[in-house]
Amino acid sequence: MGFETPEPELKELVKKAGLGTIQLPDFQRSYRWDDERIRELLVTVLRGHPMGVLMLLVTGGEHVHFQPRALERVDQDAAADKRDLAVPEELLLDGQQRLTSLYQALAGSGVVDTRDAKKKQIRRRYFVDVELALGSAEDQNDAVQSLPEDGIERRNFDRDVVRDLSTFENQVAAGVMPFTALFDGSATGWLIAYMTAGGQEEQTRRTAVFADFNARVVNPVQAYKIPAIRLDKNTTKEAVATVFNKVNQGGLRLDNFELLTAIFAGDRKHFQRTGTDFRLRDDWDETRKVKDSWSVLSQLKETDFLQMVLLLASLARRDADVAAGKERPRRVTGRGDDVLDLTLEEYLTWAPRVRDALPWTAHFFTSLHIHTDEFLPYRTQAVPLTVFRVLLGDDADVHTVRARLRRWYWCGVLGELYSGSTETRFARDVEQVPAWARAAKTGEEGATPKTVADAQFAESRLWSLQTRNAAAYKGLYALMLAQGPVDWKRDLLMDHAAYFDLNVDIHHIFPKKYCEDAGLDKARWNSVVNKTPLAQKTNIWLRGDSPAVYVERLQKDQSLAPEKLDELLATHLVDPAALRAADFEAFFRARQEALVGVVEQAIGKRIFRDLSEGRPTDLPEAYENEPDDIDDADLDVEDYEGEVA
Questions:
Q1: What are phi and psi of 149, to 5 degrees?
Q2: What residue stretches are annotated with the GmrSD restriction endonucleases N-terminal domain (predicted)?
Q3: Cβ count within 10 A of residue 501
Q4: Which of 50, 88, 108, 270 is close enough to 23 for a disulfide, judged by CB 3.0 to 4.6 Å?
Q5: Residue 599 CB: number of other CB atoms within 10 A?
Q6: CB–CB of 144/128 below 8 Å?
Q7: How far apart, in Å, are the Cα atoms of 525 and each of 160, 521, 536?
Q8: How does pLDDT run across 26-67, given as a tens digit for each residue?
Q9: Phi, psi (deg, nearest 5) at residue 390
């Protein structure tokens, strides 16, 4: 087996993918990168940073023959151009997701079939703001922008247009170029039009941007290279299998915690002062003891802790710059790479305060009926929340202040705003939320934080929330628990005291088996609208029976008066009459309306009634299929007779 290590240019790789001379071995999995990951990849190209190595296998060898498959969208592009694909000369063993993303974003229409942070299927195009692209690293991150395929950015569930980049004229006026222009030869013409689009008063400045962008962006991006390992055609099948296995195991790499461990260990001032090296891992062990005392914090990572420290340290830097009257204060940051800029002095200042705040964060979650990491909507939202506690101190527990923190939290969860890239939101929340929350002490309105303002929820999202993989699903489960539901078989409120004793989980109200046998619409019966917290044994005891049957059985088993049982059912936001009649339509309408009220109360605003308006935006078919949650009622009740009787 021989190999080479070429560095092909990105534009050549994209061209070969489009022609079909580079294809995939058919055993490769499907393309699955999300919108934010694609955008970040394009930021990497814009900055000229490395993106890792590709691995290619030359075809035509006698030892190996894999069925080739074109990268996704290549077949459609070839059909649209009425051309056949070439015979593949190379197969891509490693780098499929990166090269597919780059091909789709940079070639042809530039339209990428991807998904958003909620795993909703979307079609996007990518643009670059020519002026931001010439700025700082943070500006360059903001310069790469993802828009819907028609180039029109909307909000308020597509009812309001934020900006329209659907036409060439609008693009040059705004100074926002399609990324495809950097590779299809149209960049120069686009920049000439941009230069004159702002009128006479703008022409001098825009001319300077033209020259600068051409030199610092267009030329370097067009010359961008990706290192590769090219295995020759004499490579055996066994060697390919070994290599493929190795590259897909994603070998170990140092994360920022390990890098900072090395940096801090070499801190000369600390050694001179104490006579020892600082051991970051030993310090993390102290934090681990604290966070592991709480199930809900058990998944908190070393890097999460470092981001909390970084947010506080960078906020202190910014405040010092403002106090000193600096024209450009340093920014507040939660970016992972910026962690490496932390000094040991800053770490020692803030780490103990963050560690001391972690029990408060755990109490905050459990007070919202989030008891375990399994049902914690976003681990990452603990990062700014803990920082808020450090900044607010005891004020964080003042009734009105805490009410605003709860509203911020539910806006993040139900608005699903912590699903994607969170680092920018970390910084913005740390800057905005504490002052807004503290203003409640004096009854002031304060400036609404962006997370609170951005939060939106569509009525149809209740239908597409089907499994605990979605943060909003977990959030609604916690909010159901907050309504004070009483178990149907045991006279116990499902609160903090009984949650673990009862082994409470979320279960179907109209059981899965009954719904399937009755031919009901799975989009609705499997949604969160048809689910409620129940003790495990109670749920098993209900079996897969019709609600009309199990309600009658409950009444007899518990010797309850009908009105008393109705009261128990109502604690679950259920219409007792509809349940007794097994009237799924009436039940579903009533409970959907009840959950709408719960969401609106939590986020402090009206939701979008897209179902009522007849134009649903978030139905299940817009999302990827996911395995159903396992429901104990689907198991064989005979296996549990001794336990549930």
A1: -60, -25
A2: 10-264
A3: 11
A4: 88
A5: 21
A6: yes
A7: 32, 6, 20
A8: 777 788 899 999 999 999 999 999 998 999 999 988 877 778
A9: -60, -45
